Amino acid sequence: MALALLAWPPEPPLKAEQLSPHLGFESGPINAVWIQSGQERVFIYRGATDAWQAGSSSLLLPHGRRDLISGIDQWMRPKALIAPADDRPWLEHPEDFWESFTKARFHDYAQQTTKVGIIPVAITQWVEGGEKLQWPATQIEVLDTPGFTRGSVSYLCEVDGRRIAFTGDLIYGDGQLLDLYSLQDAVPEAKVGGYHGYAGRLGALIGSLESILQAEPDWLVP
Question: Which CATH class is domain 15-221?
Answer without folding.
Answer: alpha beta
